[in-house]
Structures
1.
Amino acid sequence: MQLITFFFRQFLTLFIFTPSLLVLMGQSAYAQNHFRVDSFPKVVKQGRVCLIRTLGPVSLKSVDIEFQGVRIPMAFGEEKGAYEGLFGIDMNTQPGTYPIKINGTDEGNRIYRGSLSLKVEKVDFGVQKLSLPSPMVDLDKKTLERVNQEDMKVKTLLQTFQNERLWRGDFIRPLEGKLSGAFGVSRMINGKRRGQHTGIDLQAEEGTPVSACNSGMIVLVDELFFSGKSVILDHGWGLFSMYFHLSEIRVNEGDRINQGAMLGRVGSTGRSTEAHLHWGIRMNGARVDPLSLPGMTKTVDKRTE
């Protein structure tokens, strides 16, 4: 009798918990079978932008990318069930293969997961030699204090994250100009190594209009020691664009502007020896080549608003 009672209890326990287990297994299997992930390109070089595209249920209300501990929102694509997201590979990311996780949540709060591995390849950025007046390189104590304060101000600004996505569609170049300073090169100034170039320099005549590479909000208008008259544009979701050495600024902090809006004019203010535009991009803290951004973005519908 005791043996019969034991088996009956075991059967009852299994009967009670099996449906819950099947539900969990079913949700997991459903998630895995209905969430496909791909990257473009499949192998990314240091300092470049990567596009992640997923296909999943139309019912998803949010999707994000997880890369090196940072979560980045994805946009809803024009095709039903398509989701797209951008993230940057910092110029100094170590070469290797990295896991990328995709997390989605639907209206019923069911969790969907996908993953892939992304290979990062090393880039030889090269060396650029420059000669500048000594006062622009060997800074006195007062100037050094100013530079440190300005550097901290900009770094803090670039670490902020705005939940609203302000950019739409493909990014454009802020002006047409000859590349005079490549991204990532190690700068040798007056014979001393001074770090890497974190943007690109576009040569143009002084006074040439500079346009916003995409829509966003002006979060910095200032004249800084190194970058001169400067504008920083927040495109939302941790994406910023920077425009340095301007001769004139035509916008104010807090302005919301559209792609192509005139930000100012090319100049040679700050630490500069000729008229040019320094154009920089930050993506969730990653320093990326601005020229790798145009053409990577895709038009998305208004479901992200």
2.
Amino acid sequence: MSAVLSAQNLQKSYAGQKVVNGVNISLNKGECFGLLGPNGAGKTTTLRLMLGLIEPDGGYLDLLGHAVPRHAREARLRVGVVPQADNLDPDFTVAENLLVYGRYFGMKDNEINARIPALLEFASLAHKKDVKVPTLSGGMKRRLTLARALVNDPDILFLDEPTTGLDPQARHLIWQRLHDLTVQGKTLLLTTHFMDEAERLCHRLAIMDNGQLISEGSPRELIKRNIEAEVVEVYGEPAAQWANAHAAQYAARFEVSGETAFCYLNDAQPLITHLQSQSGLRYLHRPANLEDVFLKLTGREMRE
């Protein structure tokens, strides 16, 4: 598979603090690559470096065959960006937002107008073509932002938390559209705080913390490599006391957070049998997932 983006040993510091520290990433054509991490991990700075919006202190970056940031302008002609916050023009209609944005890429109006019907159909917004942005719902605005990012028919899309703030129906529709794009051969670089979104969409992903990539692979590889196969969440006021007295007998590892004890194990049946005889406790038995991996590698403490 041919790499459409290659970053080697990227470095960036602010005020003497390393924000990006030796990042290596390679994206293949037609894949969705997820970049995950807590707030302050360095994800946004990494994206800005990849787009040539800021200059690295060290390292090398190639985007679509162009050295970045030296030739970032040429590279960005083949790039689409879905920012974290919608920045649509409220004075324009849905179609006018697409038309004006296409002009930024040097496209002719007739060329843009020829693409607009398919873009609106892709975003399920054909019936909203002539309405102004403020009348749209949050999900519609997000879909329009995605359609706008496709107006120049890019080879790679950078998506910064594309479904934040959306209801489940809107999220699932965006997920389907992003899947359709990879089927069409588009390459996606996705940041998200929704672990189920990353697990569903990403062929590969990397977890970033303190400016470094700390684990990389497919979602299933990361789960298998970093976490036990099963999780039992034990709830209730006496959960912490119970865990300190009994969890180690059944679990390979356990953590207590508030009134929940998280027990990680490869065979949950002995623990479940035990819990069925305990009063005042409830439990949930489930397979390990990407959120378990994320919390194990980056910790449960809040990042402000």
3.
Amino acid sequence: MHMTNQHKAYIYGIATVLLWSTVASAFKLSLKHLEPAQLLLFSSLVSALALTAILAFQGRLTLLFSYTREQYLHSLLLGLINPFLYYLVLFEAYDRLPAQMAQPINYTWALTITFLSIPLLGQRIGVSEILAGFVCYSGVVVISTRGSLAGMQAVSLAGVGLALFSTVLWSLYWIYNTRDTRDPVAGLLLNFLFGLPFILAWCLLSTGLTLPSPAGLAGAAYVGLFEMGVTFVLWLMALRLSENTARVGYLIFLSPFLSLVFIRFLVGEEILASTVAGLGLIVAGLFLQQAGATRRKGREGRMRTG
């Protein structure tokens, strides 16, 4: 039976979502063996090697040497944000919080992008996006308080703050990345190559450089491959093959719920009802935000053609 491009897109998309759903557990398990800075260093090295191998396999490795001075400086800025600052902040958040809290809070980055696009890209938002923000961040409050104000005493507020700050960094990365016209895989690899010296310097200054245990190395390798490297390429292929990017885009909403299943059985955390309720609010808010953005684009399109 002939497989259409849309079917291939779904396969790549589902594979990406399944892999992304495991990374919160991988973060938490790896941080039992590594300091956040060390996990960042070794996972970034693995990701850079994986992306280099992918480019070499595609016969496009020479792209790394074909860009302008301005584009390399752009990679320096992007590499400072991701992988260095973003993953450092994210791993520190996971180090302080249960995975079932850190993962849904970090998931609000899609809404953070919308709000940061107002001052940085001059975009406008409607009532639905404002309502989406209220619903989303209500979910963050439910998760952070475990459903009651008394629950805040057992939660690291610094961890919650770091998880929220990670959404700002990730959003800034993607907003600045929208102006990048380079091949996406080559661009990502250059970001990692420029980010690695910052990561190494931070690691030397903060924790020192020691060879991790086999379990720590295995965790870093998994994170480097399936959070930072291969999944990015799989998702790109899903988007390129899909007849409509929204068809595979909505698969992303499965990820946080699947992630809770992995957290329960791999990490061993008892999933709280407040986590499920808060995550439901976050996802509902993101649906509202996407629906509002789609309606606004439709109206703008009709205005241009009317």
4.
Amino acid sequence: MTNSGNQEAARAFAGAFAEALQQELTRTAGRPWQVKVPDSPDLNTRQGQPIHYRLTLDGALRGLLFIELYEQQVKELVSKISGEVVSAFDQERGNDLGELILAAGIELSASLAAQRGAFTCAVEVAHELSLGSMLPIPLSVFEADEPPMAFTLYFEGQLLSALAGPPQAAASPGRPKAALDPLNLDLVLDVELNVSLRFGQRQLPLHEVLELVSGSVVELDRQVDDPVELLLDGKVIARGEAVIVDGNYGLRVTEIPQPIATHLTR
């Protein structure tokens, strides 16, 4: 899909999320709130350190959506909806806002179920993010005549691809679904599987392997900007880019060559 198509799909999804967040803010605060998708962000309301929440979608829609706001906004928002003066951002306040975002995600799932199919949402605070490759969509959040607060939604590649594709409900009724019943997957969904990341590989003759010592450099067959592969039982099930999450290596998935379930039916 073109960049303009991605932008259109992301803005439509952002509009649905804005409606869900508006409902939850209004319900929690007990008075009307407004959440809009403006044409451009208001950078003047950004004060303090950025705070990021990761919204993980799974099911008919899969992928990651990151919500960015700033420390001062969190304090003002929690103060308004709780009726208490919040002078400092801490884990408790972060959890309060995370619960509100989760409730909005659940509302979003319910509102899009008929169009997109069922999906679940999970929310957590995210750290050490690299948002440069994601598509940003601004949100404007405000109460009555109060100055708006600028949020930003960041869409990663997998979610954009899912939004760009045909909705599940609109798929051809004659299209066959993956036949998973013979495996009765419901009985083994909690079984843990070992997956591994492959940054590249190289074939070496035995004498070169025996000559390896500390400090030896082995050149791999993959360029620095090539995607990293995620392997399950030696098969590539996803590709993406390596990231650092809380000091550990991780993988931000950007491509799934084919539905993962098909690897389990063979």
